[in-house]
Write a structure and sequence with these properties.
single chain, 269 residues, alpha/beta, seven-stranded mixed sheet, four-stranded antiparallel sheet, 9 helices, 11 strands
């Protein structure tokens, strides 16, 4: 069914369009106690696109994302970013955490500028950059507020601004909208499409939501249940040039959501 709704990559490791900025080669991950999370994952992530990792709960989506980020070691295999082997975190990658991961004692401005501070950027320059990105995510006027003074949605915007401020080529987002209400989540999805168009960066996205994946993604990597393998790669073909809400009413969107659901159901039995 999916093949009739979207292009499906003939080889799971082949980038659909453009050059691959991130390459994952035969990644395996086994946790202490012998729990095998990932089994031979091979993927290419095209530059300038948003690729979503989607699969049944516990299939290793976040594990794979953290391995690419250099936050978690693989048991075997290799990750390349820009042709270089990943051995740990690097300035070409930034991570937006599900739980915001903000410093509670620091202002919004300090939180957003923190990555630049770690890189030794002088204070006036890093704060000017941070102010620009705070405005970009809709938080102008909140520069000197603290995390406890913000809503969950606002805190997530701070996390996104911090990731954008360091100007990394690859931005990884681990279920970034899961902790907010449905109305805020929809607004975030619309804002994300605008950021993708304006920033021209590569986004790697993890979600449990089929609807969200189809709405924001250029490509969706469907993973099997643990030990996870690549099941297929789907490329939704949606017209995003008009009304954002119109995407959700597009028959192609609705058909893609249903097709992916039918593919995932077999992992829930």
């Amino acid at each position: 069914m999916i093949a009739s709704l979207a292009n499906v990559a003939p080889h799971p490791g082949t980038a659909a369009q453009g050059s691959a900025i991130v390459s994952v080669r035969n990644i395996k991950k086994t946790y202490p106690g012998g729990v095998e999370a990932l089994s031979g994952i091979t993927l290419d992530f095209p530059e300038g696109q948003l690729t979503t990792l989607l699969g049944p709960s516990g299939c290793g989506k976040t594990t794979l994302l953290k391995i690419i980020a250099g936050l978690l070691p693989a048991t075997s295999g290799e990750v390349l970013v820009g042709g270089r082997t990943v051995t740990g975190p690097g300035p070409e990658r930034s991570f937006v955490f599900q739980d915001f991961a903000l410093m509670p004692w620091a202002s919004v401005l300090r939180n957003v500028a923190f990555g630049l501070e770690l890189r030794g950027v002088r204070k006036s320059e890093r704060e000017a950059i941070a102010v620009g990105h705070i405005a970009k995510v809709g938080l102008k006027g909140f520069e000197y507020k603290y995390p406890h003074e913000l809503s969950g949605g606002m805190r997530q915007r701070v996390g996104l601004a911090r990731a954008l401020a360091v100007d990394s080529a690859v931005i990884m987002m681990d279920e970034p909208f899961s902790a907010v209400d449905e109305q805020t989540r929809r607004k975030f999805q619309e804002d994300l499409l605008g950021l993708i168009a304006n920033e021209k960066k590569t986004f790697l996205f993890v979600t449990h939501s089929i609807e969200e994946a189809v709405y924001v993604s250029d490509r969706i990597v469907l993973l099997s249940r643990r030990p996870s393998r690549v099941s297929t790669i789907i490329e939704p073909k949606l017209d995003r040039s008009g009304d954002p809400e119109g995407i959700r009413r597009d028959p192609a969107y609705l058909d893609a959501v249903e097709g992916i659901w039918q593919s995932l159901k077999k992992y829930l039995d």
